[in-house]
């Protein structure tokens, strides 16, 4: 809680994890499949920063805001039919932040052969891109990719492991790990937990 702005990601809970993550969240970045939906985790002081990856994500957001029936077709995981945040708490992330994360920071290819799936930065890298845009100093806690122990957990709140992340075709976690080390060694980002 010592920082002016705190960014949390996806469905990572706060309540029950205050000793690890504090109890303050300024911004929560997520997309339909990753949004937090547990009402007990609601915080009236948090701004939900919506990260659309596809046109369908925006359609979903409009539907939940105006309380239309929500379709789960076209999503890799069923998104919730409603959200816990009020409309005045919702912002849509400027696409240039995602573009910067993908092409300037990660150097992902802009032209992808039709037979290959596109690659996207993870929400963590997008959050770092956003923080670098709006903050003079960026401190990161808990972001890690443990390539030595593929059974290590990815998040403080779930049992998802590195082996499951390694199978993801949509993220280049090797490139992300290299970027994290570069950002740390250049003192662009400070690693509070010594994970990268």
From TrEMBL:
Keyword Transmembrane helix: yes
GO terms under cellular component: Golgi membrane
InterPro entries linked: Glyco_trans_29 (IPR001675), Glycosyltransferase_29 (IPR051142), GT29-like_sf (IPR038578)
GO molecular function, one term: sialyltransferase activity
GO biological process per UniProt: glycolipid biosynthetic process
Gene3D superfamilies linked: Glycosyl transferase family 29
Keywords tagged on the record: Glycoprotein, Glycosyltransferase, Golgi apparatus, Membrane, Signal-anchor, Transferase, Transmembrane, Transmembrane helix
Location of the protein in the cell: Golgi apparatus membrane
Protein topology in the membrane: Single-pass type II membrane protein
Pfam families membership: Glyco_transf_29 (PF00777)
Record has Glycosyltransferase as a keyword: yes
Family, similarity comment: Belongs to the glycosyltransferase 29 family.
Name the UniProt record assigns to this protein: Type 2 lactosamine alpha-2,3-sialyltransferase-like protein
Lineage start: Eukaryota, Metazoa, Chordata, Craniata, Vertebrata
